[in-house]
Amino acid sequence: MSRRSIVPFGPQHPVLPEPIHLDLVLEDERVVEAIPSIGFVHRGLEKLVEKREYTEYVYVAERICGICSFQHGSGYCQAVEAIMNVEIPPRAEFLRTIWAELSRMHSHLLWLGLLADAFGFESLFMQCWRLRERVLDIFEMTTGGRVIFSVCKVGGVRRDISSDDMKRIITVLDTIVADLKDFERVFFDNNTVKSRLCGVGVLSKEKILELGAVGPVARGSGIKLDMRKLGYAAYDKIPQVEPIIETAGDCYARCLVRLRELYQSVEIIKAAASTMPEGEISVKVTGNPNGEFFSRVEQPRGEASYYVRGNGTKFLERFRVRTPTFANLGALLATLPGCDLADVPMLVLTIDPCISCTER
Amino acid sequence: MGFAEFTKTAVRNLFSKPATKNYPKVKKEFFENARGHVIFDETDCIYCSLCARKCPADAIKVDRNAKTWSIVRAGCVQCSNCVDACPKKCLSMGPEYTPVMTEKGCETYARVPDNTEDN
User: Is residue B117 a part of any domain in this protein?
Assistant: First the structure.
């Protein structure tokens, strides 16, 4: 038997900007066990809900994560609105859908770039992030922030998108699609890329169900799991919301799911823009939440759930977030034993870990 | 299976302009609605401290008696909640980011004493 050694991976690692630490127990080049430890960026945001008024907490909730910040804010608002029986105007629902899909686009482009960086394709990484920059500019134009938008509020949204801006957004999205088509074949078809992704970290459908993985990880293994099908915000009014699935269950399948979701997001935004009704963007909310609610949204990384309990005062009693990365960590740990050390970055990346989200 | 998928993009990159700006020669143009920093206009302020209460980051402090309004620029999260809360509309958002600073100090705006009242 070969000698065992332990290689620490993270919390600071060139391939992964997220602070997760894995102790990889190796036999020669093969991983036999991975022992995770998290908790490097715990900020106590859930406890902070007792110190901030429920209307102000939106700005804290969306700072749970810098990439899916909009969905964190809207998920929290949905829960509070459900407790208080507030019905938000239809236009606000559509605006939330548009911003959520743009967030998905910027998250997936960021992820594709990171993946390219991880398998050593620097210029592809730059190309992906170059496209992402255009999405960020759309955010700055419409919401005022590039990463943290602060546009969601209890009772609707704070900013409107004018029809001129909407046209400009569609034009930018068309250029993104055109440019993405130019180099998507590198992900789809390139020998070198395929040799790093195909057949690596295979998770069967049964294994995914057993581990409770969500989002593109589950969809890459052929499970139709997409919270957008619940029909929150305006997703029930848009026919294009159909889960994109791949059946192989390896890193390549998870990559394809995200690539195809980029095109789907563009379709959803276009559909939402064409059917968006005119009208108010927010309603006045009076009183304090009393009761509890459990809301679910589909983040770029998968299903996130929010539990909110109010006690009739302006301070909430409890706020709990279950982020998609937390659900996917089990899947990651299941794929690591038996893999090569060189494949570890691929495996960690293809669950698209967001540790800041997970630790709140 | 292929091996030269990136060639088109690579060749085009050779002959296209850089995607980045030549900063600081070319300054970044901010969008009109961007949330960069809070601007305080003291002329109408009634020092009600509503902005301080609505600030999720506790960055704003208002002293009613001394008639001062202060903000910790490094603590401000640019959510513009104070701007929405202000009843006198004396707060607004400027598009430029807060300039770099060497100290995370508190910026205080004191009301200029009105001479006519003293006499």
Answer: no
Backbone angles phi, psi at A77, to 5 degrees: -60, -40
Residues spanned by the domain of B55: 33-111
Count of CB contacts below 8 A, A vs B? Answer: 72
**Which of A133, A158, A191 is closest, CB to CB, to B3?**
A191
Residue of A59, A168, A175 to mutate, testing the B interface (most B Cβ within 10 Å of its Cβ): A59
**A165 CB within 8 Å of a chain B CB:** no
Distance of CA A336 to the CA centre of its chain: 22
Could you tell me which residues of chain B have a Cβ less than 8 Å from any Cβ in chain A? 1-3, 5-6, 8-10, 12-13, 19, 30-31, 33-35, 54-57, 77-81, 84, 93
Any B CB within 8 A of A159 CB: yes
Q: Across the strands, what pairs with B108?
A: B70
Helix A69-83 vs helix A90-118: crossing angle, to nearest 10: 150
Quick count: other Cβ atoms within 10 Å of Cβ B12? Answer: 11
Contact A185 B31 (CB under 8 A): no
Closest Cα in chain A to B55: A56
Strand partners of residue A282:
A156
Closest by Cβ to B5, choosing from A123, A159, A190: A190
Q: Which residues of A37-53 are buried (b: 16+ CB within 10 A; e: fewer)?
A: ebeeeeeebbeebeebb
The total number of structural domains in chain A stands at: 1
| Shortest distance, CA B21 to any CA of chain A (angstroms) | 12
ipTM of the modeled complex: 0.80
Range of the domain at A259: 4-359
| pLDDT tens sequence for chain A (360 residues) | 678 888 888 787 777 777 888 888 888 888 888 888 878 888 888 888 888 888 888 898 888 888 888 889 888 998 999 898 888 898 898 999 999 999 999 999 998 888 888 887 888 888 888 889 899 989 988 988 888 888 888 888 888 888 888 898 999 999 999 888 877 888 787 787 888 888 888 888 888 888 888 888 888 888 888 888 887 877 888 877 788 888 888 888 888 899 889 999 998 998 988 888 888 888 888 888 888 888 888 888 888 889 998 888 888 888 888 888 888 888 888 888 888 888 888 888 887 777 877 877
Minimum CA–CA partner of A187 in chain B: B5
Q: Which amino acid belongs to residue B23?
A: Y
Read off the pTM. 0.87
CA distance A328 to chain B (A): 30
Q: What is the CATH number of the domain that holds B82?
A: 3.30.70.3270
Separation CA A127–CA A346 (nearest Å):
19
Using CB atoms, which residue from A148, A150, A186 is nearest to B5?
Answer: A186
